[in-house]
Amino acid sequence: MLLFALGFLLIILQPSTGQFPRVCANVQSLLSKECCPPWDGDGSPCGELSNRGSCQSILLSQAPLGPQFPFSGVDDREDWPSVFYNRTCRCEGNFMGFSCGECKFGFSGLNCTERQVKTRRNIFQLTASEKNKFLAYLNLAKNIPSQDYVIATGTYAQMNNGSNPMFRDINVYDLFVWMHYYASRDTLLGGSNVWRDIDFAHEAPGFLPWHRVFLLMWERQIQRITGDENFTIPYWDWRDAEDCEVCNDEYMGGRHPTNPNLLSPASIFSSWQVICTRSEEYNSQQALCSATGEGPIRRNPGNNDKSRTPRLPSSADVEFCLSLTQYESGPMDKMANYSFRNTLEGFADPQTAISNPAQSGLHNALHIYMNGSMSQVQGSANDPIFVLHHAFVDSIFERWLRRHRPMLEVYPAANAPIGHNRENYMVPFIPLYRNGEFFKPSRELGYDYEYLQEPALQSFQDFLTPYLQQARQIWVWLVGAAVFGGIVTAVLTGLIMACRKKKGGTSSEIQPLLIESEDYNNITYQSNF
């Protein structure tokens, strides 16, 4: 009965976010370069008859890119998604989706007008039934085919420029593994040549917004396939952990009794097959990952290279990272110094913020520490610990946004590595999302973190913190201004008193320094430093 109900839900639920929409993975759509499917509600492209959206030409950013990728016209991901489609649905208001059939993150209801904020919780704060439900949802996603999306098994050139589509079905969980692979894979240059210094999801400003979108999409997929609209991703707070606290059969799988590189047979994850882990094989064949099984999940936590990652991150590491005021700096890649993004990502020392790619801190440290499937970038999402880890990384990003309250302009508009400028569309998401759209507080996107929901007093203190920090930096000028203001006030007071003594009989109508109280309330004073 449960399986029947789940199957029924798969049929009636609206499409969700992902990679290539199934309805656009055909010769007609590829040759016309148009992906504007009809919305089921009224049968019109993009729900135009219901004012949900319309089919529009894609507006690509013309901002210059950084020097890291010295090619043009050799990678399908350049100016995403224009190689495949140059017309897609542009949704109005709070509508979203490849056919404008969904609500934007943070909205719900028939017309997407109802605000909602859901809470992501610490996995160790879940009840036994909540935790077991989460594990069951993961396993369900691994075993249910995606109804709305397919993956590309060849490049656009290998598809004969669209006349020979190369796509295949994939299960819901592996769809996200494949998207993570596709965003971070090497560029195929022909023959046996590849370009490795390219990544649309890492090592640059888009790292945090990209994974924020990735988790929101993943969360929504789980909500849809299960019918549990209240589901949220739990997080693992790994600060000061002495070992992998979630690496046991009660949670994410313990160690195999005879092979320390594998998971315990008692874990449901021991039967999972990984995909997209053989990057060198794909490169030598000039091929894309086809999402076929490549063996079990591998994990041997703590038996990693200690010279690279001596320990798991500490609370002090996180607090230092949060103190950094610059989101991005310098070359805006893994060599950036004093960059919050680069320090949180783990390419800069969490005690100095100086770039050191030979060491792995914070985010990177967890990946290296797991010493297995999670330690290889392209295939790291195969291990379900990935979502717990990145949910906590996202919470640190959220803390930084709340503490420093940056304007959108803080996110680089130009000269970032390819795909990472503010107005670039994120690879490989359809519908389209720009990097800058997710450089804002999580509550505006419909979610919060349990441990960030502080009491009112603490929230007020958090609100004042950035202003107090600024005041400390200019306290000398503030004192000087106060002294100067006191002197000016004293002089003016003396002049007024002198005038009063001279013109004691002058009526109030002609006294120039007296004003009506209601006029006084309309005067605004400004001080600029």
From TrEMBL:
Regions that span the bilayer: 474-498
Ranges where the record places region Disordered: 287-313
Endpoints of the signal sequence: 1-18
Keyword Lipid metabolism (UniProt): no
Domain of life: Eukaryota
EC number(s) reported in the record: 1.14.18.1
UniProt keyword annotations, A-Z: Copper, Glycoprotein, Melanin biosynthesis, Membrane, Metal-binding, Monooxygenase, Oxidoreductase, Signal, Transmembrane, Transmembrane helix
InterPro entries: Di-copper_centre_dom_sf (IPR008922), Tyrosinase/Hemocyanin (IPR050316), Tyrosinase_Cu-bd (IPR002227)
GO CC aspect terms: melanosome membrane
This protein's name: Tyrosinase
Organism: Helopsaltes ochotensis (Middendorff's grasshopper-warbler)
